[in-house]
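Sample entry (204 residues):
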Amino acid sequence: MEDDAFSQKFTQMMDARGLYLGPKLARNVDFSSFHHVLDIAGASGIYACCLVAAYRHLTATVFERAPVDRVAQKCIAKRGYTKRVAVAQGDMFTAPFPHGCDVHLFSNVLHDWDVLAVKSLLRKSYTALPDGGMILIHDAHLNRQKTGPLPVAAHSVFLMAVTEGKYYSISEIEIFLKEAGFSVVKYRKNALEHSIITARKVSR
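Predicted structure, serialized as tokens:
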């Protein structure tokens, strides 16, 4: 992704999938009480754009490394959302998350990373979110028993061969979120093989 040509091509491919999944994500989660979404490793910004399109009061920031941040800026401008969707450059593992965001979105991100990296990102999110803030994990997930769905399991084998990660089960993500400090964990289906897991930061 550090190569401009490759990042442009890969991001465009992810963008095409987001055009279908993004509007469905907006319909399946209620964002009416939230104000600013941080789309972490948000690629083209397609999900951020879909959310602000569905909720007129929402704004968003796409948090991406160079050179993908430049691709995101172009895609967001092409869609006409530059006034409501900003882009912040940074590495999600090493740079602080931008302040002022009450929703953290990880869409198709966690499956690229191993357990230690995933847990680190969730703890970082919990620390950065305000009280009452929401984390939203949008990805393909294995079921709680890890017996399927078969397409997700098959693709997970591919991910284990080419990335540090895999597709995690619903129960694994639920445990990771609770260990990070989150509560009010909820699961729901989205579209295709994708599902949504949300949780809240609630002060004890």
